[in-house]
């Protein structure tokens, strides 16, 4: 039964969720908030939706690039190198980004008579991203229920999985991860050095997948 | 101390809140989601911010006019006449509109080191608008706290007041309500017949204010 809308970035996690729950997904939405890597990941989001015959929409949120404070919105030079979970990655947080994307998705769900919003946040996000943590997910779920006539709910099936476990699920599903984008710098190839590239490499290795990514280094 | 951001439509309630809490408000934001009445109310929002020396920004959310289901986004002919609290006004609900505006305001608050988001929802909204009710306000407050580093909070000082009580507060503050907009139809003058016009007339009468509004009828 098609009862859900998914927030789909075109990265590894949400692409895996798309394939994993394809039977329930009526609509996928990507957000363009003006980062360098949006332009690289959204075409992959579109590609996978076409493969699965799922309707895909891109929602422009360009004002975030203009008014929000984040190194992710300040060009590739501003993206720190290092490990995803380290303190210096905090600068890449876009304030309340998931709250904004979930709120739009909730209104879209109600507008389309859909009951669930799906998001692919995971355990590895919790350290630095407050709007990926279980407390946030639970609170937003209650907010969506209270704020809609049909009581929209938030589903976050990967919330307590690692990115490596998600990649292992993608391996079972036969997903081609060369057709996903992670790098926050959003250059021609993945840089291989920023936090999201380091995390991507680790997850693929953990899942025993030969890394199909072309890196700059 | 300037610690707050306000969601300011340019209607009676949020304009009153702006004057009432002007000492604490560092930034006011209005949202243009593509309704007829946005174009009428936003210039009033801007006017009052100029009067008070408060910074004002307009955030475009035009995709809501394109993808969301609501008579408010379908032109003036679609707006029903009658009482604000009646069942047929349900068609004017924009799904999860307050959730979306609050989420953007929360990210803006964190980006600007502000601790509070203010919204002027009131008791008369509760009947038909789920995203104006106390349960929604409480749940969003927890969501904003959980989803931000600085624990942004939601303030909703008029949540249990009637619109008439808000107008009475505005009378004390000396607010000129001729410089506010209510009518959902967004024509040259207030139509005087839609739910928001009926509610406006009642509130001004309840507060003992000579109605300064020019109506079509």
TrEMBL record, chains A, B:
Keywords linked to the UniProt accession: ATP-binding, Ligase, Metal-binding, Nucleotide-binding, Queuosine biosynthesis, Zinc
Cofactor: Zn(2+)
CDD domains: QueC-like
Phosphoprotein in keyword set: no
Record-listed ATP binding positions: 8-18
Reactions catalysed, as given in the entry: 7-carboxy-7-carbaguanine + NH4(+) + 2 ATP = 7-cyano-7-carbaguanine + 2 AMP + 2 diphosphate + 2 H(+)
Biochemical pathway: Purine metabolism; 7-cyano-7-deazaguanine biosynthesis
EC number: 6.3.4.20
GO biological process per UniProt: tRNA queuosine(34) biosynthetic process
Top class in the EC scheme: ligase
InterPro entries given in the database record: QueC, Rossmann-like_a/b/a_fold
Signal peptide: none
GO MF annotations in UniProt: ATP binding; ligase activity, forming carbon-nitrogen bonds; zinc ion binding
Family affiliation: Belongs to the QueC family.
Function: Catalyzes the ATP-dependent conversion of 7-carboxy-7-deazaguanine (CDG) to 7-cyano-7-deazaguanine (preQ(0)).
Name of the protein this chain belongs to: 7-cyano-7-deazaguanine synthase
Taxonomic lineage: Bacteria, Pseudomonadati, Bacteroidota, Bacteroidia, Bacteroidales
Gene this chain is encoded by: queC
């Amino acid at each position: 039964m098609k009862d859900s809308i998914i927030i789909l970035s075109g990265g590894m996690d949400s692409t895996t969720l798309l394939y994993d729950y394809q039977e329930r997904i009526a609509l996928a939405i990507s957000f363009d908030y003006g980062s360098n890597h949006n332009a690289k990941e959204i075409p992959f989001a579109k590609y996978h939706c076409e493969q699965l015959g799922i309707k895909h929409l891109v929602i422009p949120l360009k004002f975030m690039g203009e008014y929000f404070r984040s190194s992710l919105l300040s060009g590739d030079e501003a993206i720190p190198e290092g490990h995803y979970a380290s303190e210096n990655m905090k600068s890449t947080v876009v304030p309340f980004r998931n709250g904004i994307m979930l709120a739009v998705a909730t209104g879209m769900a109600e507008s389309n008579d859909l009951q669930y919003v799906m998001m692919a946040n995971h355990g590895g996000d919790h350290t630095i991203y407050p709007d990926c943590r279980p407390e946030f997910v639970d609170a937003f779920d209650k907010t969506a229920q209270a704020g809609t006539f049909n009581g929209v709910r938030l589903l976050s099936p990967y919330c307590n999985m690692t990115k490596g476990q998600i990649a292992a699920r993608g391996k079972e599903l036969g997903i081609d991860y060369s057709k996903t984008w992670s790098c926050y710098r959003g250059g021609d190839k993945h840089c291989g050095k920023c936090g999201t590239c380091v995390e991507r490499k680790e997850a693929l290795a953990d899942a025993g997948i030969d890394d199909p990514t072309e890196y700059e280094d």
